[in-house]
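Take a careful look at the sequence and tokenised backbone pasted below. I need to know what the token row says about the fold.
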Amino acid sequence: MRGLKPARNQVAQALFRPTRFIHLNNVVKLLKVSADTKNLTLGKSIHSHLLVINQTSFESSIHPFNSLINLYVKCNQIPTAQKVFARMPERNLVSWCSLMAGYLQTGFSLEVLKLFKNMILVDGLKPNEYVIAVVFSACSDSGKALEGRQCHGYVVKSGLVFHQYVKNALINMYSKFLDVEGAMRVFSLVPGYDVYSYNSVLSGLLQQGFLNEAEQVLDRMMGDGVKWDSVTYVTVFGLCACLKDLNLGLQVHCRIMKRYLELDVFVNSAIINMYGKCGEVFNARKAFDGLKGRNVVVWTGIMAAYFQNGCFEEALNLFSEMKIDDISPNEYTFAVMLNSTAGLSALRHGDVLYGEIVKLGFMDHVIVGNALVNMYAKCGNIGAASEVFSDMIYRDCISWNVMICGYSHHGLGKEAMAVFHDMLAVGECPNYVTFVGVLSACSHLGLVKEGLYYLNQFMKTVGVEPGLEHYTCVVGLLSKAGLLDEAEKFLRSIPVKCDVVAWRTLLSACQVHRNYGFGRRIAEFVLEMDPNDVGTYTLLSNIYAKAKRWDGVVKIRKLMRERNIKKEPGVSWIEIRNVTHVFVSDDCQHPESIQIYEKVKDLLARIKPLGYIPDVAGVLHDVEEEQKEDYLSYHSEKLAIAYGLMHAPLEAPIRVFKNLRMCEDCHSATKLISKLTNKIIIVRDANRFHSFRNGCCSCSDYW
């Protein structure tokens, strides 16, 4: 490029010699060079020369005008191109097409359609295949489906549809309109196929979730022997990822390796994504490690693969490696990192990421805002989640859903419903996920009539088909209200097949409402559905214990041994100053276990005058009362809370996470501990968040 600079200077000097004459053919060539190299200065010099020196012959020829329009379009000077176009005494298809393409490239799709109409009505020109292709692209970009179909009718009548260029543009237009049937109709009925046709159809089918149809088109493409390009590989790997078809993905990857193809960053990212979605993190990492050059897209892809497979720590470690490699993160990188942080409930790490996001200026990205709200909600800081949500300049449906579901998960039904009503007020249409959060909020608030209204009427009004998650929420709603018979009838009447979770929701309610006979019957039914569901065995054992049916407890334990079913041990953890401390029941492994046990003992002694009575009925052992109290005293969540009170900053809430449902004794004790210590204690168990303040819990003692 350096060698061209003196040459350009010589051309400019020659142009400004008044006696110098340059033939128009050479002028056109020079303008083409200026356009191709985007040298606006040289192009303007030539334009000035034409106006001053060669005005008469210049205005009598179309070619220099067209070359000038092409120059200004490629240099992104559309207003100047429009002025040149307006001065033309005569125009041809190239003139119109060049200006249309310029408007299309700069996002003014409606201007393209206006020009197209004027071309036909004012100049009386008939469009060719190139003009029509630009018009189809303008229709798809502007969402003008009616105009697109009218143009489709025109190209069928005129025969232009048989040009491969036009056919491809048509397929692409219908794909962008999400009209898969229209795209397939053009693809199947109009003869002639190339790689672009197949790519457009495959991409459209993939975006709309027509995976079986996409497989059929891929088989046809293979049969036709069409040579693949990089777009094909990206789309096919995307299809493998959606299908979770590892075998097909391996075949496509082998095809690339056998042909020694040079892959771009998009194909490499698609390979990593495919392995990640298919659960093959090792292969994803192998593909990543084999890359010579890595950019932010590839780094984000491998982090996402780890995240999707629950390897949250590995994803976060890669973020540090990426920064060492001097690669700057983008908004998608931060979204993956925040979601990985949420998976670990690592609040402090999330705060650090938040600081980086603000520093680098990514707060205005919706995907980052959504991930931040999700992270804070899942890490137990619903207040911070609400602040981030309120500060978001742009929101989409996911933003509203994350906030609604976050409030519901924390038991804040009123707040969830308030956000839902705000969502409707701004005209955002609720979707499947929205109503999971809404019905869950109704359950927390005991709004039986309202919940049934949303399920049976409102969801139909907005076109959302109820699914298993919605029906499970309604079972929880009816169960919490004590309507156990109605909940069972509802479960047996719904049009979808219920899973164990839905029935276990009813079984858990039987325990809370102390309807043990009903619970035993439901438990036996659930174990017929899934003899290996450990949660049902645990709940049934608890029901027998509370009814003092020790023979039943022994029977359940024997059954679990015979079927080799093992209960997952209860584990609680708390993060103090960026270090996570993990506890199990009767844990003696912690370096400060002696002090922790003393703290628990002291707390339990001090809350007894406040009304604490150990819930020995929940102990699954037929032993003396005093021994039962010992069993209860050192559950993992009590140990974690005690450690938090010993070491957490005075003003900071205590945040504890547990892998199983919080037991009733720990729940009662934690309420009183929060009152005794005047501390906010937040516990996330397997079901929900419990926020303990001044002797009360956000779950209203139902969980």
Q: What stands out?
A: The two ends are 71 Å apart (CA to CA). Residues 593-607 form the longest helix (15 residues). The chain has a mean pLDDT of 88.
